[in-house]
Design a protein that fits this description.
This protein has 500 residues and is mainly α. Helices cover 63% and strands 1% of the residues. The protein has a two-stranded antiparallel sheet with strand order 1-2. Strand 1 and strand 2 form a beta hairpin. Helix 5 crosses helix 6.
């Protein structure tokens, strides 16, 4: 970084504002170059399969290199300290830039000729939502199929976290960038150095992916399909290489493997680290993990019994279909093996609850997150106790630690804002002519980064029939849902730009 002027001194007369736009430009330029490297990899995949479409990745790569170079040059002589405001700007703008530039191969190749559709597909990829506008996925060349899955793999743990782990540039200010991207209730710091922590998380992430690749190949999947499906599973994204998603293979073994890895990917990755370090007790006693697994188990059992006693399937098939659909909804993965629109209607509400709940904090899942729900449940329980014992002091505890009042207030504020965003999105989609049920399903799915919706936009349908306006609204919801709302909405708060 020093060779690029990282430690250059600011001009004496440069006015220091609340937001360091030159530094933001510099960091974004580096991130754009990182995406250029991703295009180079996908171009190599395309060449491996002797596809002429490799040239579109080359075009996109050249655009990234030029744009990134200009941004680095513009921000070369700037103060290198990343403050909180800079962090939020970098994270928000990097996700938008990655999406705008990431859609270029789809658009240049003509496989997605609409800018709206190309942006929607790419945003769905990077935010690991998994909703698609494609109606014939198998017609895409291998390079583009790999790019779709790779966007989810990178977006799973986060674009900035990937860069912190990969490059030495952000060793000093990686902490602030990480906190700006990984917004949530808590941030489990498994190592004092943010770069080392990022690498540990990515190693765990990659190992899970590789294990799944091997297991899927043992089930009869090709290497290419196994890699792409595994990218989408550990990222809880849901982009498949087949239009019929996982049901294409019609394999109970593959369905069970992916179900298990979806659930594993919905667990806080920091817990895997502490377990590897010999602290298995801390892993097994984690209250959020208990809440998550109990929820998956109860919902799966309920839906299994409903499907069995209504003669939809035999007991094993009912359990397998229920487990897969609950796992894909609860972890915000977008895969499907059955059309749950044909199931008893009360099961839709159970799946909607799973979509809203999401996975654990520190996982690749979306949704509200189970730790927040656990804190709310503890508050409700304490309220009953307070009514019987008015003078009692009843702190909320999770894993033997008292939750600060400020954190509890943040949880309630987040959940209220989450519901408000759903209501606004639901209303806007109905204004665009989308039906009541379909609007609710797609909005909950988009903000929770889930993928499948309800009705005409359920698990066996694409979202191509949506009006363009609705696609832009849903793209925004995917974006703010992936960065957990406040990181984006903060930029629209006037005090962010004016208050010292």
């Amino acid at each position: 970084m020093d060779s690029l002027g990282y430690n250059d001194v600011l001009p004496r007369k440069q006015k220091k504002g609340l937001v360091n736009f030159r530094l933001i430009s510099y960091i974004l330029g580096i991130l754009v170059w990182v995406e250029a490297g991703m295009f180079a990899l996908c171009s190599g995949v395309s060449l491996l399969y002797r596809e002429s479409e490799y040239i579109y990745f080359v075009y996109a790569m050249l655009i990234n290199l030029v744009l990134g170079g200009l941004m680095i040059f513009a921000g070369k002589r700037s103060d290198r300290h990343v403050n909180r405001r800079d962090g939020y700007c970098v994270v928000s703008l990097s996700w938008l830039l990655f999406t705008v530039l990431g859609m270029l191969p789809f658009y240049f190749s003509g496989y997605i000729p609409s800018i709206t559709d190309a942006f929607f597909e790419t945003m769905s990829g990077f935010t690991t939502t998994g909703a698609t506008i494609l109606d014939d996925i198998e017609t895409l060349p291998y390079g583009l199929l790999f790019w779709r899955s790779f966007t989810q793999f990178i977006g799973g743990l986060g674009i900035v976290l990937f860069t912190i782990a990969l490059l030495p540039f952000f060793s000093g200010d990686g902490q602030q960038l990480f906190l700006s991207e990984a917004t949530g209730v808590t941030h489990d710091k498994i190592h004092p150095k943010i770069k080392v922590m990022a690498r540990y998380l990515w190693i765990i992430y990659i190992v899970l992916t590789l294990i799944e690749v091997v297991l899927l190949m043992l089930g009869g999947m090709s290497l290419f399909d196994s890699v792409c499906q595994s990218f989408a599973t550990t990222a809880t994204g849901g982009f498949s290489t087949k239009q019929d998603s996982i049901s294409y293979w019609n394999s109970p073994y593959i369905e069970y493997v992916i179900s298990i890895f979806m659930i594993l990917s919905g667990v806080n990755f920091s817990l895997y680290y502490v377990a590897i370090k010999g602290k298995a007790g801390q892993f097994l006693c984690d209250k959020e993990l208990h809440w998550f697994l109990k929820s998956v188990g109860i919902l799966t059992l309920t839906i299994t019994l409903a499907l069995f006693f209504t003669d939809y399937y035999d007991l094993e098939t009912a359990f397998r279909k229920a487990l897969f659909q609950v796992a894909t909804a609860h972890t915000s993965c977008g895969f499907a093996t059955d059309d749950y629109n044909l199931w008893p209607q009360f099961t839709w509400m159970l799946l909607l609850f799973a979509m809203l709940s999401g996975g654990c904090t520190g996982s690749t899942s979306g949704g509200i997150k189970n730790l927040r729900l656990l804190i709310i449940a503890q508050h409700i329980k304490n309220q009953f106790k307070q009514m019987l014992h008015p003078r009692a002091v009843l702190p909320v505890r999770v894993n033997q630690s008292a939750i600060p009042v400020q954190v509890s207030a943040t949880v309630y504020t987040f959940c209220a804002t989450y519901i408000i965003c759903i209501f606004i999105g639901w209303t806007l989609l109905m204004c665009f002519g989308v039906g009541l049920t379909e609007s609710l399903g797609t909005v909950v799915s988009a903000i929770g980064n889930v993928g499948p919706g309800l009705g005409a936009f359920g698990p066996i349908y694409s979202w191509s029939a949506l009006p363009d306006g609705a696609k832009w609204v849903l793209s925004i919801l995917m974006f703010i849902g992936r960065l957990e709302i406040f990181g984006i909405l903060l930029l629209f708060y006037r005090g962010f730009w004016t208050d010292n």
